Amino acid sequence: MTRARVGQDAVAVVVGGGVMGAATAWRLARDGHDVLLLERFAPGHHEGASHGETRNFNTAYASTHYLDLVQRARALWDELARESGQVLLDDVGLVNHGGGERRWGATHDALRARGLAAEWLSARAAHDRWPALRFAGGTSTGRDVLWVPSGARVRAAVAWRAMLDGVERHGGRVRHGVRVRAVVPLDGGGVRLELDGETSDGGTDATILARTVVVTAGAWTTSLVGAVVPLPELVVTQEQPAHFALATTGAGDVARVDAMPGFNHAPDPERPLDRYFRSDVYGMATPGEGIKAGWHGVGPVADPDARTYRPEPDQLADLRRYAREWLPGVDADAAVPISCTYTSTASTDFVLDRHGDVVVGAGFSGHGYKFAPAVGEALAALATGDGVASARAALPFRFGPGRAVATGTPTGFGT
Q1: Could you give the CA distance from residue 290 to residue 334 in angstroms, rounded to a whole number?
Q2: What are the φ/ψ torsions at residue 116 (nearest 5 degrees)?
Q3: Assign residue 353 a region: left if phi > 0, alpha if psi is -120 to 50, beta otherwise?
Q4: Low-confidence residues in the chain, pLDDT < 50
Q5: Beta bridge partners of 97
Q6: What does the pLDDT read at residue 204?
């Protein structure tokens, strides 16, 4: 086994301390492995995709590999909550609408086949239950809205911190402010990491050697390991959801809004009034900040080191229009834009695989956060050679030709 220099001795080094890296390091440390987590930026930074207070725990998938992953993730979120003594998920459920049974029928059937509750509601019944949201009716069967009680709201900032605390509680190490500038596989096995900046022993431009490296570097994945790992194309975009302040009407009642479900809203191709939609829409209540809503995966392509952080005016105007028409619980003119990155594959399927002694978790395509502990489990198993259950290393997640190739604009919902 090669040894890490600069006073570090790690079976695995995880590069990238967002939620996926934190989840991987937590799992490795919890399983008794010596792990070192390196993060380029300061704790709680806003440079990537993991910051913010809330995400949807969206269980509304029809694909086997995602349902396997999300069910495993729920079990692990609950485990982390018990371990940390903190509430990480609020069980508010999830509503899915737009297109009715035509759009959501396969999801309904897949959830029911798993033993997960999925209930059809009419638009009127859904609005009566959740007045902060509006729904379009029109189906003869009344199957306008798919209510999924297994959905939840992730307390994202709390959850990320609980993972990092868990790494150290189990004997792992976390270092912020350390930039890895090169990942170099070695001919005899193992990997050399070349670092920029000052190290803990007062040196500069240090080198770390490790048996295995797990790269969870988000928007920086291609620049860091694209030359040494057969990555699919990863496209980085700057996305701009927004928090809308609550309205002063009854629909904006704080207690009722905070308890409302997360939502997915697909434009109905048979509804001309939806033609301005730039994509599907996702959203959730963020206690203390209002209701978060956003387009999914339609932001401008961006260099993660040269972002403007400024919202694109036309997209923001359309998002305000959406809020005005569909979110009666908010003041559509009181929006606080958020800037984050998506790193997306053509099919929006994740990359979870190993090449030599480099493991990569990437391409989460704006819908990965909810899966984080299960992704961490899969990446940890890949790093240690413990193997991964076939469902959690499904063919769509691998480097090879089994990956789906998509054309056009990906659909789906952010988290």
Answers
A1: 10
A2: -95, 135
A3: beta
A4: 1-8, 199, 388-392, 406-410
A5: 145, 265
A6: 52
Supply the pTM of this predicted model: 0.92
Chain Cα centroid distance, residue 202: 36
Q: Helices marked H in 144-285 — which ranges?
A: 156-169, 221-225, 254-258
pLDDT digits (tens, 9 = 90+) for 280-334: 999 999 999 999 999 999 999 999 999 999 999 999 999 999 999 999 999 999 9
Taken in order 366, 338, 157, 10, is the CA torsion positive or negative?
positive
The first and second tokens of residue 235, run together, are 């496209």
Structure tokens at 283: 């959203």
Residue 209, strand partner residues:
192
Q: Tokens 């691998």 label which residue?
A: 398
**Residues 383, 388, 390, 391: what is their CA dihedral angle, to the nearest 10 degrees?**
-90
Lookup result for tokens 């022993």: 201
Q: What own/partner pairs with CB < 8 Å and gap ≥ 24 does 177-182 have? A: 177/39, 177/40, 177/41, 177/42, 178/38, 178/39, 178/40, 179/40, 180/15, 180/38, 180/40, 180/217, 180/224, 182/224
Question: Helix, strand, coil proportions of the chain in percent (round to 5)?
Answer: 30, 25, 45
